[in-house]
Amino acid sequence: MKCPYCGFAQDRVVDSRESKEADAIRRRRECERCQKRFTTYERIDEIPYMVVKKDGRRERFERHKVLSGLLLACRKRPFTPDNLEAIVDEAETFLIDSPERERTTSEIGELIMNRLKAIDTVAYIRFASVYRDFTDVREFKEELERLLTAKDQTAKRRTTEPPREPSHREAPTRKPQRRQP
Ligand SMILES: [Zn+2]
What we know:
The chain folds into two domains: 11-43; 50-155. It is built from six helices and six strands; from the N terminus they run E-E-E-E-E-H-H-E-H-H-H-H. The protein has a three-stranded antiparallel beta sheet, with no helix packed on it. Mean pLDDT is 81; it is low at 167-176. Helix 1 (63-73) packs across helix 4, helix 2 packs antiparallel against helix 3 (105-119) and helix 3 (105-119) runs antiparallel to helix 4 (121-131). It is elongated, with a radius of gyration of 26 Å. By secondary structure, the chain is an alpha+beta fold. 45% of the residues lie in helices and 18% in strands. The structure holds zinc ion. Zinc ion is lined by residues 3, 5-6, 8, 31, 33-34, 36.
């Protein structure tokens, strides 16, 4: 801690105690150069965690924003509220683990997309089309094709397995849904 009198950076703590309300720790320090004493307080960290947007602007991380994006992407898809909460928790933990107290929107988006991809392709595509920075249409098409190829391979493997109950969860993604108006 820099000495307020002479600016020297080294000091020693001569006394340390908790405040009466137990919301702060008060430390009495002594500068190792000028020997003057000064006091510092340690408090619970209330500085918000920030998200850095594409244009460099910073915004406070807000769970409800992440959750509403997820709700939109996962509408009518096989997700429980607990699934979504868990994904938001993971995104928040990832941010809190950052030593700089901030992450870019694309880093957080990437994490969320990976979780969605593992559960449901439709939700993943919806989310990706909004949040992912596909530099052009071609890149988005390539990602779609990768997904479709992966699905084909899964389907081929299945035909060699003994027959089993059809999976309702996957049915809508294999063929386009047509609904009568
Ligand atoms: Zn000093």
